[in-house]
Amino acid sequence: MFIRYEVADKIATISLNRPEVANAQNPELLDELDEAWRAAAADDDVAVIILRGEGKHFSSGHDIKGAGSANGHGKMTLEEIIQYESRRYLEYTLRWRNTPKPSIAAVQGRCIAGGLLLCWPCDLIIAADDAKFSDPVVAMGIGGVEYHGHTWELGPRKAKEILFTGRAITAEEAEKVGMVNRVVPRAELDTATRELAASIAKMPPFGLRQAKRAVNQTLDVQGFYAAIQSVFDVHQTGHGNALSVSGYPILVNLDQMKTKVKSEL
Fold first, then answer.
1. Is the four-CA dihedral 226, 232, 237, 240 of positive or negative sign?
2. Which end of the chain has fewer surrounding CB within 10 Å, N or C?
3. CATH number where 171 lies
4. In which domain of life is the source organism classified (predicted)?
5. Which of 151, 171, 152 has the alpha carbon at shortest distance from 161?
6. pTM for the full predicted model
7. Number of domains in the chain
């Protein structure tokens, strides 16, 4: 099992449970994670959802340890890549984002590329003071992680900066631009997150659903949903280029990408 799921005091806690690989996302982890979100959404005893990661880091992103693995797209056609990513990197994340219950991501250590795909769909983000967020996939010839919330979460210029440079931003920087709600000492992350969840769980469920729907619909009217869909399609041109140039492992710069991720951990 790559996910731990617990319910207590009207709070569902979903824990990423691959700490030995910094909670890197293989297909099984993502499928189990989606099942946990579905369970929390369907459970009338759950008022708030917490997403957290076991170990030192929240998530090092997609598991790219093997260029020949399915997750590394080593033996897949472009059609197969799009089918795989449409399900796990687009359908799942939009479902989590639109789950009609408040959700909180508790982020510590590194949150790299695909890690953003896990915390950005959550309604609130509490970050430990050691948290750093990055999306270094431009080095792979790709314009950003599949769930392209960058502009909405960071603003256009900060989004371009982290994409163009691949550098990580600190929890404090993320809080300044509004991507993170609050920053707490690492030792207090779980407690602070649970206290916030408990205070939200006291509110009327219908009111919470209405408030979440109102904010999400406002973003959608501004173009969020259409942008996520269209930029996902643009993302696939990176895979298409990689296949035409090298047939994968692309990523002419895959080793560079792996080195960059390792330096983040």
1. negative
2. N
3. 3.90.226.10
4. Bacteria
5. 151
6. 0.91
7. 1
